[in-house]
Amino acid sequence: MPKLLLINPVNPVNIFSFLSPKTSKNNGVVFVPPIGLGYIAALTPDDWEVKLKDESIAPFEYEGADMVGISATTGQAPRAYEIAKLYRGKGIPVVMGGIHASLRMEEASQYVDSIVTGEAEEIWCDVLSDFKKGHLKPVYRGGPVNLKNSIVPRRDLFSDKYRVGSIMTSRGCPFNCDFCTVTIFNGSRLRHRPVRDVAEEFGSIQQRFVLFLDDNLIGYSQKDKTYVKNLFVEIVKRKIKKKWVCQTSINSLNDESVLALAKKAGCIGFFVGFESVNEDVLERMEKKANLTTGINRYEECIRKVHKHKMVIMGNFVLGYEKGIDEIRRDTCWMKNSSIDIVNFSILTPYPGTTLYERLSRENRITLDDYPYDWGLYDADHPVSQMDYLSLEDIYEGIKYRVRILYSYPAILFRFIRTLVKTRSILPSLIALFTNVVWTRRKNLARLAIIESLIERREAH
C-alpha cells in the first residue's frame, strides 16, 4: 500500500515567534486545523495509507513516504520549499498546492515535482493515478468545483490539541478588493454546499467552538441570505449545541432576521471587514460593499449585532492613509465606536493581487528576496513602501494605537462596554481574551519588528 504524507508547514518568522523564539518551532497559537489537507486526505482512495504531519502541533521530524503533499500560504512558502527539498533529495516526489503555488507556479516548480492549482477536488485522483503510472505532470489545473458534491474533510487526522473546529459552506467572492486573493483563487461567483450536508458535518465536529471559514458566510444577495437562514434553521432543528463565529461583510449585518436566527443557531460573534472609516481609502481599495452600506451606518450595524447578544471583531487595513494624522483620526473613531475587538492588518501586497502588480511595477516592494522574504508576507510586517506613509509613520501609528486601543485600561473599558451592550458573558469574555492575548501582543511585536527595521536601515 503506497503511503501519502501530507504536510502542514509552519512559518518560523510568524509574529508571535518574534516575542518568544521558542514559538518559532510552531505557530505559537494552535487554533484552526489545516482543513485543506483534510479535504485532500478525504479524496484519497482507501488503497493509500494517509498520514498528516502538522508543524503547528509539533516540530518537524522526517518520516518516510512514497509521495508527499504540501499546502502552503505565501507566509508558509519558504518552509514548504525547505521540506520539499529534503524529500526530493531522497528521491520522494513532492506535490504542492494552495494559494501560493497557484499564484507563483514558475517559482514553486523549482522546488517541487508537481503543482496543483486552484481547488483540487476534481483533479486529485488524476494526480494519484499518474503517480502510480510513474508519470506525474508538472502542473494539474484545478478550478471552481461544484460544491453540491462536496466531501467531508478527514478530521480524524487532526490533532486533538486544536481547540476550535472549522467548517466551510461556500467558496468564491464577487468583490475584487485590490489587496485580496480570494477572487483570484476561488472565483467571483459564490457557490454553496447543500444545507443538509453542512448541518450534518457541523453536528459531527468534536469541538464545542467552531469557526466558519467562509470569506462571507451570510453573503451578498437575498439568495445568499435565504441560504444561510435555511442553514441556521436546520442547525436549530437538529438541536446542535455549538458556539460559533464567522466572517461576513458589513452589508450583511443590516438584516435583523438573519442575526436573530444566527444567534438561535449558536453564533457568538462576527469577523467584519470594515477596512477603513475613510471613503477615499475604500474607493482606492475597491471595497464597494462598504461604500454601498456607508460609513455612517457602521455603528448602526454594530448596534444590531449587540442587540442580539453577539460581538464584532472589526478588521481594518493600515497602509492606505495619507499620513500619521489620518491614522490617529481613524484610531479615535475605532476607540469611540462600539466594536468589541479592534484588529488591523498591515497592508501586504500578496502575489497575484492588483496591489502587488502595481507596487511591483513602481519598484516599491522593499522586501523581495524571494523565496525567503515570503515568510514576512503575513500582514504583520511592512514589506513595501506605502503610497503616503513612511516606515516611521507606520511605527508611530501602531505606537499610538497600542496606547489608545490596546493598553490594559482601554481593553478593560471595552470589556465592560461589551458586557453592558450585549448582556452576555461568554461573548464578552471571548472578546476580552482576544484583546489581551492576541491583538495586544501582536501589536507589541509589530512595534519591535518595525523598530528593528528602522535601526537596520539607519545602520546601512
Task: Explain what you see.
The protein has 460 residues and is α/β, with parallel strands linked by helices. The chain has two domains: 3-141, Response regulator (Rossmann fold, 3-Layer(aba) Sandwich); 163-347 and 386-451, tm_1862 like domain (pyruvate-formate lyase- activating enzyme, Alpha-Beta Horseshoe), CATH 3.80.30.20. The chain has 18 helices and 14 strands. The strands form three sheets. It has a six-stranded parallel β-sheet with strand order 2-1-3-4-5-6, sandwiched between helices. The longest helix has 35 residues, at 425-459. Residues 23-29 have low confidence and may be disordered.
Topology record:
Elements (H helix, E strand, L loop, with lengths): L2 E6 L6 H5 L15 H9 L5 E6 L12 E5 L5 H13 L4 E4 L1 H5 L1 H4 L5 E4 L6 H10 L5 E3 L22 E4 L2 E2 L10 H5 L4 E2 L2 H10 L4 E4 L9 H16 L5 E6 L7 H9 L2 E9 L3 H6 L3 H6 L4 H10 L3 E8 L5 H13 L4 E6 L7 H8 L29 H15 L2 H15 L2 H35 L1
Parallel strand pairs: 1-2, 1-3, 3-4, 4-5, 5-6, 7-10, 10-11, 11-12, 12-13, 13-14
Antiparallel strand pairs: 8-9
Helix pairs in contact: 8-9, 9-10, 14-16, 16-18, 17-18
Structural key phrases:
alpha/beta; Rossmann fold; pyruvate-formate lyase- activating enzyme; 2 domains; 6-stranded parallel β-sheet
Outline? globular
Query: For the record, what is the CATH homologous superfamily label of the largest domain?
Result: tm_1862 like domain
> Class of the largest domain in CATH?
Alpha Beta
The CATH architecture of the largest domain can be named as Alpha-Beta Horseshoe
Supply the number of structural domains.
2
Mean pLDDT: 93
The structural class is: alpha/beta
- The share of residues in extended strands comes to 15-25%
CATH topology-level name of the largest domain: pyruvate-formate lyase- activating enzyme
Q: What oligomeric state best describes the polypeptide chains here?
A: single chain
The low-pLDDT segments are 23-29
C-alpha Rg (nearest Å): 22 Å
Number of helices: 18
